[in-house]
Amino acid sequence: MSSNANQPDAQFLARFAQAWNDHDIDALMGFMSDDCVFHAVAGPDALGKSFVGRDQVREGFMAAWGAFPDAAWVDGDHWVHGDRGVSESTFKGTAADGSRVEARMVDVFTFKDGRIAVKNAFRKNRPALAKAG
């Protein structure tokens, strides 16, 4: 576990969430450890699709914005306990076909040396909403 001086807190996760809403990949990657892993909300495996290492994690993060160019994570709450953390929010986004997603979700984090080593994303499996308009 990290020392207290280097330990992420709820504000750390709030800044990470803001980088998602800003669609700022460089800022996001600044929060991630060198050996980071991202388990996406969907994919072929029990953990969804896993992205391992900085290059793959960057690709996985950018894929979220590719699928939902207006992606936003709102109403966030963040908790940290030791080397684990949780962010709870509502994901909102519009896919290329105009269908919309709005669902509660959580990210479960594991920290290492003051950065995010694992981001494991979970989202409610809600049917797509009707196209706007």
Automatic annotation (TrEMBL):
Listed Gene3D superfamilies? 3.10.450.50
In terms of InterPro entries, this protein maps to: NTF2-like_dom_sf, SnoaL-like
Give any Pfam family that matches: SnoaL_2
Domain (SnoaL-like): residue spans on this chain: 14-117
- Taxonomic classification, please? Bacteria, Pseudomonadati, Pseudomonadota, Betaproteobacteria, Burkholderiales
Residues that span the membrane, as ranges: none
What species is given as this protein's source?
Answer: Diaphorobacter aerolatus
Recorded protein name is: Nuclear transport factor 2 family protein
Q: Which domain of life is it from?
A: Bacteria
